[in-house]
Every structure is written in C-alpha cells, then in structure tokens.
Design goal:
By secondary structure, the chain is low in regular secondary structure. It has one domain: E3 ubiquitin-protein ligase SopA (Pectate Lyase C-like). Helix content is 3%, strand content 0%. It is built from 1 helix and no strands. It binds zinc ion (ZN). Zinc ion binds next to loops.
Length: 200
Amino acid sequence: MDSTHYNPRPCLTKDCEQPALTGAEKCWDHLTDQKGFVDGLNPAQLADTWLVGIDASGRDWSGANLENARLSGANLSGTNLSGSTCTRCFLDGANLTGSNFSGAEMEFAVLGQADMSNADFSNANMIRSNLVGTKGHGTNLDGAKLYYSRPGCADFTGATFRGAEITRTIFRRAILRDTDMTGAEGQANFDRADMEGVKQ
Ligand SMILES: [Zn+2]
C-alpha cells in the first residue's frame, strides 16, 4: 500500500521521521532521483497523495487532480495548474510564485505562509480557503471566489481583486497596499488591514 495523505508510511532512510512520498519509499529529501520521480507522476491522479516538499516547478499540470493532496513546502513556481482540482489540498509554505491556478477548484485549500506572488488565481474557487500569512505581491485574484476565506496577516501588496467575491473574507491585519478591488462584491472584514492606496 502506497504512502498517502491518510496512510503515511515512514521514509526508509534510517532515523528519518518524514513520511515517504506516495509511490516512493523515501521522503523528498532522501530521494535519489528527484526529477525522475516527478516525471513519473500522473497529474490527473494525484488525489490523496503525500508530495510534501517536491519540486514540480515549471511543469504543465493543467487540469490536475490534487484533491486532499499534501504538498506543503513544495516548489510549484511557474507551474501551470489552471483548471485543476485542489479542494482541501495543503499548499502551506509552498513556493507558488508565478504559478497559474486560474479557474482552479480550491475550496478549503490551505495556503498559509505560501508565496503566491505574481501568480494567477483569477476565477479560482477559493471559498473557505486558509490564506493566513500568505504572501501575494502582484497576485491576480480577479473574479476569485473568496467567500469566508481567511487571508489574515497576509501581504497582498499590489494584488488585484477585480470583481472578486469577498463576502465574509477575513482580511484581518492584512497588507492590502495598492490593491485593485474594483468591482469586488460583498462585505469583507478589513479589521486593522493596511488599506493604503486601495482602489475600490
Ligand atoms: Zn527521509
């Protein structure tokens, strides 16, 4: 039985306490052929997988299924995940700079402390997602569904939320300097947020 998000097996390396990646016997750090491992992944069949820390930067994973997958700390810089399913996916601490999540299904996804600067999340469904402490300089969130998402303490300097759905979005203590919220709909919580230069 493969190691999964629900059934993690320990990495075979002595004294390593990380779970093994799904489809491998070792964790990312102890994998000898990291590139070969990522080459062998079928993006359409990655639901429930344990892929913590992997480097899939620059890959075309459009339409991928990452439902319930765990990719904490992964490098997805420049990765194309447009139209993917990332419901309940763990992307906390991940490098998402310049990635493309446009139109992705991301309800309940965890993106806390991730860096999504200059990424495209336009029209993504991010309802109830966790964005606590996320960095998103210049991120495109136009038309994103952010109902009840939690970008508390996030830094979205220069991001765009044009036409986004922000009912009950909790921007508590977030940095929203120079963001474009033109046409954003709904009553968000901007408690102690930095709203300097926000376009509404
Ligand atoms: Zn290990």
